[in-house]
Amino acid sequence: MGFVHPLVLWLLPLALLPILLERSNTRTYSWVDMLPADPLSNLIGLLLKILAAISLFCIILGLAGPHSLEQKVERIGVGAQIGMVIDRSASMDDPFSGGTAEGRVGETKSIAAARLMTDFVNARKNDMTGVITFSNSAMYVLPLTESREAVLAAIKATAGNSLFQTNIGGGLSSAIGLYEGVPDSGSRAIILISDGAGRVGAEVQQKLRDWLQRYNISLYWIVLRQPGGVTIFDPKYQDHYEEALPTEVELYYYFKGLRSPFNAYEAEDPKSLAAAMADINQKEKKPIKYIEKIPGRNFTQLCYLLAALMIALLLGVKYLEVRTWKS
Questions:
Q1: 99-105-106-107 Cα dihedral, nearest 10 degrees
Q2: Which pTM value belongs to this model?
Q3: What value does the mean pLDDT take over residues 199-226?
Q4: Which one in 49, 161, 190, 279 has a CA-CA gap of 20 to 30 Å to 8?
């Protein structure tokens, strides 16, 4: 049991005043020894004092704001601990190379990504989700949480105005940090959504390789293709390519060399982006252990209701007393 205002409980001894204090009209008679004993009246008088004490007790208790404590119950469900890493570079405000889809003319990559991620979150009931965005540097938006409302608000915020550069290494490093100190539920994944790639230094590459394996995290990369851009799946880059690899292709081969599970997708329009999200949704439906938080119950109204009932009984008895004396 907890209290919103625990200091108010120091007033609880005041509830004993109706029992400890005597009514003044019991001492207005000069001599009552000749009257016969009336145990019933004494009992009723004591009960009335108790009713008054209970009413005061309930009022003071209600002012303290009593409530039961939050409970945490371990459940078994289907889902994952998912870190969403979202590109916020300026190019995310450009439309898809595929033009229109499903009647959404000129839908930008950032808006389409936010819309489809919202659908993804709404379709999954037991996930813990965190959000990281990146441009020049990473921005820590939301830790891993079960609150769907907070996750949806964070995703909605990513559809705003974008910045410039694409620091994927910083975004992934911050995303891995989401899992520090969080018990492993049995399924962990990072979903990286970007429309390009920046250079990732050798030191950062080694850290990402070690951390992804240490925290048992799968990586999904959805590449939103630029109009006329290269495809990371082009076979010409696989063998004996003498020129410098495009940054997207170089990053793709680095991800393929990780010791952790990795899947890559290319999306040219909202439809192909939706297909990629649907495939991730199917792959990450694994049995997991998760903690369900059961909020405490507020007993303030119950205390006031009991106090009102006690006062009503006292007023009823007082009304009968007045009518008796008048008659």
A1: -100
A2: 0.67
A3: 89
A4: 49
